[in-house]
UniProtKB/TrEMBL annotation:
Substrate binds at T7, H8, N9, A10, H11, K12, S68, F153, G154, Y155, D156, K176, H181, R182. GO terms for cellular component: cytosol. Homodimer. Binds 1 Mg(2+) ion per subunit. Mg(2+) binds at D67. Keywords: Hydrolase, Magnesium, Metal-binding, Nucleotide metabolism, Nucleotide-binding. PANTHER family: INOSINE TRIPHOSPHATE PYROPHOSPHATASE, INOSINE TRIPHOSPHATE PYROPHOSPHATASE/HAM1 PROTEIN. This is dITP/XTP pyrophosphatase. The active site is at D67. Belongs to the HAM1 NTPase family. It comes from Rhodoglobus vestalii.
Amino acid sequence: MRIVLATHNAHKVLELRRILGPTLDGLELVAYDGPEPVEDGDTFAANALIKARAASAHSGLPALADDSGICVDALGGAPGIQSARYAGTRNDSDNVELLLKNMAGMDDRGAQFACAAAFVVPAAAGGAGPEEFVELALWPGAVAAERSGTHGFGYDPVFRPDGQQITSAELTSDQKDALSHRAQAFAAIMPIVRSTLLG
Ligand code: ITT
């Protein structure tokens, strides 16, 4: 059975294919090439559902989506759901630079990555539906004073997970996948996906 992966972010696709691989037995992930919906929800969960609904409606297939970002305590949770567009450019490096600038001199560096994983099953012909599910996971840590590491994407070079002396861009992909917000959110939703589609 095919599931459309409702993201245009190549880094997410890479991570999700890695994370989901072992749980996909009997399921095939297909890329989403339809229009990007307007993400005008107030929460990660709302925006993940908007993306999954759009991909499901466009493809007629069940859809999985990820809405994620970094929430900084001292910035009142910003950039939060605006993480991809924080600097106005959708450029990861610009976003990180603005975050470091906005946190210059701050002692409170506490932050967390958040990921909402949404799963939408289209309405069956003549039947009930659609069915919608969402799971949210957090990865607590702190924003480092400067970038380090070359793995991952986005804010990884400045995110130091709790319990680590290094940033998530210095973790190996296996290490990040054992801890990350994305891995936790999708670990929670995959049993729902499997039982909904495969019984
Ligand atoms: P789609 O909506 O097409 O999925 P997007 O990049 O616009 O792609 P989001 O709106 O969910 O997705 O924004 C996610 C942003 O949050 C992402 O661009 C990064 O800046 C940041 N982010 C999320 N997860 C991250 C991770 O694991 N490591 C580093 N940064 C992350």
